[in-house]
Please model this.
Amino acid sequence: MTLAKGSVGVVVTALCFCIAVEGWIAFAHPFARLPVATIEQGELFNSMRDIAKQTSDKNSQPYMVLLGSSLVVAPVVQAESQHRKRAIKRFYERRATACEEQLQQCISLPSSQPVQIFNAAVGGGMASDDYFVARELLESKHKPVALVCGVAPRDFQDNLVPGMYSTSAFQILSNMSDVKNVFSDESLTLDKKFDIAMGRVSNLWRNRAEVKSFFGLLSKKLIEKACPFILFEKYGGTSMALAPQKDGIFPEEVKGTPYAYPGYAIDHYEPKKTCEQYMRSYNPVDKRMVDVQFDYFDRTLELAQKHGVDVLVVNMPLSRTNKTLLPPGFYESYLSKLKSVCATRNVQLTDFNNSSWDKEGNFIDTVHISAERSNAFIRALMESVAQSSLSVALSGGHKQQIGAKSISNPQ
Model:
């Protein structure tokens, strides 16, 4: 009996300790300060924190949110750095004032309460990520008045993504109610399903790989100090090549934050490497992934409709070179499904993937709008917003809608 009581005490103490650790992680965010890559240092976590901070006040201005992948990120942040005439922290500065100025020129907004625009798009984002981001914002205390969702074929088909459960949006924004969708995937082992479920309950479990990486880095540094010989490879020198050396940066070490500079494209691969990457992403087609992603896309539109928030869907431009990488018939199938879902949910679809925007000169790497063309793209995008049903919500309902018709060829 004494042993049993003692065992219960140990269990209770252990549970209290675990709860205390989980609470500390949830409120103090220690992983955001580790010198290794963590999801709390990534784009999604910090963009959501910045948007929440700027829109949390009860007297905050109405705001519109841009959703999507790096195809949306690139022109928005490139135009923003040019507009502000300074470098901006890509992950931390999510206010899109360049978009706001262009929108103000396209639509007469109340000067006393202009609409703010925030960039919630993330590099590598998929349609499921848009759903989790939209849900977080739509169910917040101060929800947006409108959403602009930029999509492209890779948002629905990407063989380089193991599954929707592997993305930063799922890791950060999902909860136990989302696990049932993952469990329906018969290709996942019981161990993987357990891992995903535990990650919805425990922050420490979800970030255990980052903790392991951190202690591994500490161990390397301690060994290096104690040993006079060169033991580890680091990035260093003028070429920043990975090689055995005493000075430099360990591969798992993270320093600084990505910036966008006026007149320069954000970080990107060379066109050849980008094409190789997208060739692997597109081929072969994973029908189940496409179906899952379109289901999340539909759920995003349904959720916005439930909250009374208008959505404009934008089919993002791709270069003609990139479109040749798509499997035969896939783009036609993708566009047909996109139109069908938007029509079912009575959501306007604007198609920028046309002869005006798919020229090679508009892109820096065949998929991302170049810095030189970013302002023109943002201007065209805001003109499309002004010509959509969003114009009513953005003007506070005090003016007539400026044409909620379908726009198929924005110039």
